[in-house]
Write a structure and sequence with these properties.
Length: about 350
């Protein structure tokens, strides 16, 4: 986290600054698309987005990457401890866990509903025991906690030009669209973790089951029935992007370039998968670097223009409220919080 971002957000407490920096590092390391888009936000809002992503990344890492060969019991215990730390942090505003400390501060500053974080933790716990989903409706139930709530958490930080409850369904749909894109890209990697996120009834409609996916993964051989199922899942995902699209215009104008850039880049995952012939069981499709640079450059132009026009009326995020804890030798000069 740069000092400019922290000071613009009015974050002076050394422990909080360290916690936010930790979250930013997680974002930069694990979420290249998300991190790139976040750079297009006004500086004072970036720390909050890093805190939200950092917490989500930390929990997801516990589920997927907790040491080599960590069994389900160890992962469940780690998630239980994180849930306990989360509850304490949200109630009292402090925690020894950096990602929880930053998250609790962000939740308080922007008035984010605590239930959204608890729903997310429930979805993470489900990943320890649920290995597939019978129907798309079942998958959407899971994604309420794993993806839709992320969009809802972001909304108070981004701000809206309409009442927040009007924009909420679109923000939730966008979170789902992003995760569906990742599910399509990561079919092979998820299969290696024992999970299949493509609905079983969609697969069965093309004569595909887990065993056929495993065969293709192990042999490296394509299978037309699998390709057909993946193509249908791609079409389903594009439908969710269309569902979410009207929400972009409901955001605070200075936040739109960030979310539009993420919208285009995550949608580009679908283009990369389809353009490569749906080889997701054998290798990960990536958005070409030139495309990422072009989209980011367009986003930057839009961001600058939006900030120049920021005098026009819109519904700003609620004024961030400092946590009710003493500041311990803040690192910002008195006027630094006004930097934009």
């Amino acid at each position: 986290m740069t000092d400019r971002e922290l000071c613009a957000a009015g974050i002076g407490d050394p422990a909080l600054r360290a916690a936010y920096r930790h979250c930013r590092a997680l974002n930069a390391r694990h979420g290249r698309t998300y991190f790139l888009a976040t750079r297009l936000l006004p500086v004072d809002r970036r720390p909050a987005v890093h805190a939200l992503y950092g917490f989500a990344r930390w929990a997801d890492d516990i589920v997927d990457s907790l040491g080599t060969g960590a069994d389900t019991g160890r992962r469940a215990a780690a998630l239980t401890e994180l849930r306990r730390s989360l509850g304490h942090g949200l109630r009292h505003g402090h925690s020894g866990e950096p990602v929880v400390l930053a998250l609790a501060d962000t939740a308080h500053r922007y008035g984010i509903e605590h239930a959204l974080f608890h729903d997310f933790m429930s979805a993470m716990s489900a990943d320890l025991t649920v290995t597939d989903y019978a129907t798309y409706a079942d998958l959407r139930g899971y994604m309420h906690g794993s993806a839709a709530v992320i969009g809802l958490q972001m909304l108070p930080v981004l701000g809206t030009v309409v009442p927040r409850e009007e924009a909420a369904p679109y923000a939730a749909a966008l979170g789902v669209a992003f995760q569906l894109s990742n599910f399509l890209r990561d079919v092979g990697e998820d299969l290696d973790r024992g999970r299949v996120y493509l609905p079983a009834d969609l697969l069965a409609g093309h004569g595909v089951d887990r065993e056929l996916l495993r065969w293709s993964r192990d042999t490296g051989r394509p299978e037309p029935r699998i390709t057909a199922a993946l193509r249908e899942f791609e079409a389903l995902t594009r439908g969710v992007y269309r569902e979410a699209l009207p929400g972009l215009g409901m955001l605070d104008p200075v936040s739109r370039p960030c979310i539009r850039t993420a919208f285009v880049l995550y949608g580009g995952i679908l283009d990369a998968v389809a353009g490569d012939g749906y080889p997701v069981l054998h290798r990960r499709a990536v958005v070409p670097h030139r495309r990422r640079v072009a989209v980011a450059a367009d986003g930057l132009v839009r961001a600058v223009g939006a900030r120049l026009r920021a005098g026009r009326p819109f519904r700003r995020p609620a004024a961030p409220r400092p946590m009710p804890t003493p500041e311990l030798g803040g690192s910002c000069p008195p006027a630094a919080a006004e930097v934009v």
